[in-house]
Design a protein that fits this description.
Elements (H helix, E strand, L loop, with lengths): L3 H9 L13 H14 L4 H9 L2 H5 L14 H9 L5 H20 L1 H6 L2 H9 L6 H8 L4 H13 L10 H13 L3 E6 L6 H11 L6 E2 L4 E2 L11 E2 L2 H9 L3 E7 L2 E6 L1 H7 L3 E5 L5 H7 L3 E7 L2 H11 L7 H6 L9 E5 L4 H14 L17
Parallel strand pairs: 1-7, 1-8, 2-7, 3-4, 8-9
Antiparallel strand pairs: 3-6, 5-6
Helix pairs in contact: 2-3, 2-10, 3-6, 3-11, 5-6, 6-9, 6-10, 12-18
Bound molecules: fe (iii) ion.
Amino acid sequence: MTGLADISRLLTEKGMARYGAEAINQHDHALQCAALAERAGASEALVTAALLHDIGHLTADDEGAALRGIDMRHEDRGADFLKPFFSENVTEPIRLHVVAKRYLCATNPRYLNRLSTASVNSLNVQGGPFNATESEVFAAHEHSGAAILLRVWDDFAKDPTAKTPPLSHYLDLAERVLSGPGKLILVVGPSGAGKDTLIAAARDHYAHDPHFIFPKRTVTRPCESAIEVHDSVSEVEFQKISENGGFCLHWQAHGLQYGIPNSTARAIAEGRTVVVNVSRGAIEAAQARFHHVEVINVTAPREILMARLAARNRATDGGLTDRVNRDIELPGCAVVEIVNDGPMQHSIAAFLDTLATTPSAHPLKPNPHLFHQP
Ligand code: FE
């Protein structure tokens, strides 16, 4: 579940209907707003906010509500819909773009005269211009500047003849924002290789460094180890969390379900480095969801793996030979290999070195589109 698939569907299906009483549809309005933001040199987060500022109109059927005098709070609905995926740099300008209109009407007399008739009608439904105190409170808000810019692009993005780059261009951009400047480090390798021990050591090492996050996984298995503490849930509970979009990544292995909570995606969006133990089969899904993914493959010779698994004697491990003999191809990606067959402190040192030296920024995709305005 990427979130962007749903967003794309909303814009290309429901978004083709007319945008209230305006002369264009929601899809074109969204593209024009994003294009104005991009042309103004806005951050990718703010361009994404411009693209998605009215998504709340599409997540519920509020067509014509403003004309009937009903405020459906599309700004809150949209911001809340996007909150599991995007940082506040995207969601809060969206949440504030309606009150930004009330602020601009109160503080800039010429602004009110420029509004379309539909926008004047919705202003009245939304509470009219701010009073002096409300204006002061709004101006002090961390995201008010971005919301005002978004509001102005919103007002101009209603030109039936304007040409813009295609939706795919802005979805690529939104995907980069969604993925965030942080990175996801996947620790993979056969059972018994020592992944959990290495991760536990790194978690202790970085206990006071908020840049590193070691999320607790959700697993349909009781918690049997003090080293790998996870949220233990039933199959039914797992399914429910998954259906509600609670995981940014989930997979199945050895008859068990594993999930990584959505807070991980938010941490990456905030620029943090997330380190998590995943099945090798989950790498491709992670690469599809996040832009900056590193893989650390922890291995050990077969006889060492067998001995460790036998000593662990965990009922849910299943057949030891099966687990050790599983030879899974790693998908095409840069992989750092740590052979954990000697003293544990050597492997821990190698693991910490790798975490400290993986590159921290993903190169942005080139922008092949130019903005054209007639
Ligand atoms: Fe709008």
